[in-house]
Design a protein that fits this description.
This protein has 167 residues and is mainly α. It folds into two domains: 20-105; 109-167, no CATH class. Helices cover 62% and strands 2% of the residues. The protein is built from seven helices and two strands. A two-stranded parallel ribbon has the order 1-2. The longest helix has 21 residues, at 110-130. It is extended and about 55 Å long.
């Protein structure tokens, strides 16, 4: 990053948080999920009532698991699972900084987790070497019966967006 020395604002702004690096599309996903929460629960409710970490971690996992399995939109209300996952993370972070996060994570086992991961990561090259003569096909969402449902959901989302644009 270079600063333009003729403008004093450039020199000052060089080390300001670069908020322009956050995608406007991601901001739109965050906005629709927070709008959903606004309608269902009230805006900024976690800042007043608090947010239990386990509740938002569970919701995050449910949305990510549904998306991972090929479901783009929450069938309850049509909002994108990825948007709702972002909202879960946003709320955990904001509640933590507001002093309203109810931190009910289990007792830490971080050292053991790091050890297990290191052991398994050391095992991975051995597994790969043992089976390097194999050339398996790696399947993706495109290979599943869910592909038709996935495509249909994408078409539904497109039609909804087009309808909203015309309204």
């Amino acid at each position: 990053m270079t600063a333009k020395h003729s403008n004093p604002k450039d020199a000052i702004a060089t080390f300001k948080l670069p908020l322009h690096l956050v995608s406007p599309i991601v901001k739109a996903y965050q906005a629709i999920s927070h709008y959903l929460g606004n309608v269902k629960y009230g805006a900024w409710n976690w800042r007043a009532a608090g947010a239990r970490a386990s509740v938002y971690k569970s919701a995050l996992d449910r949305h990510m698991d549904a998306w991972w399995e090929g479901e783009e939109l929450d069938p309850t209300d049509g909002t994108p699972h990825l948007a709702n996952a972002l909202a879960c993370l946003n709320i955990i972070i904001d509640a933590r900084h507001a002093g309203k996060l109810i931190d009910d994570r289990p007792p830490s086992n971080a050292a053991a987790l790091a050890e297990v991961r290191a052991q398994f990561e050391a095992l991975m090259p051995k597994i790969y070497a043992r089976y390097e003569d194999k050339n398996p096909r790696h399947y993706t969402i495109a290979d599943s019966d869910g592909l038709r449902e996935h495509a249909a959901l994408e078409d539904d989302a497109r039609r909804i967006a087009e309808s909203n644009a015309r309204a």
